[in-house]
Amino acid sequence: MTTNSHLTHxxxxxGVAPGTGYSHVVWGTGRFVAVSGQCxxxxxxxxxxxxxxxxxxxxVFENMRRCLAEAGATLADVVKLTYFMTDLAHLPAVRxxxxxxxxxxxxxxxxxxxxxxxxxxxxxxxxxxxxxxPEGR
Length: 137
Description:
The protein is an alpha+beta fold. The protein is built from 2 helices and 7 strands, in the order E-E-E-E-H-E-H-E-E. It has one domain: CATH 3.30.1330.40. It has a 4-stranded mixed sheet with strand order 4-7-5-6. Strands 1-2-3 form a 3-stranded antiparallel sheet, with no helix packed on it.
């Protein structure tokens, strides 16, 4: 179990098999923020990193960071990620990009779901986030 000022992360509760690259349970106190699924679109709406899952994931996390900032939150406040991916084989590339922006000892709870398609051709993933922002920020 790890904690920071307003969040607690439990990698694996007793009796639950440890996960790889996520916390089984995260809780905290503060203001709840939901970020809609983000895709690898730039400011003009063009796909970034077509065919490259790691490049797409980097753009997704950058878009997520900007959305969180609008709510006074940071990536460190994220408690849950949900990955919607057209191919789960891209998960290692996504984890590489995720580990560049998240503290590996305080990873959010996560779910990964394979989908047949996303709303635009060329998109490989969409990732949504839930965050808890400490009171006073």
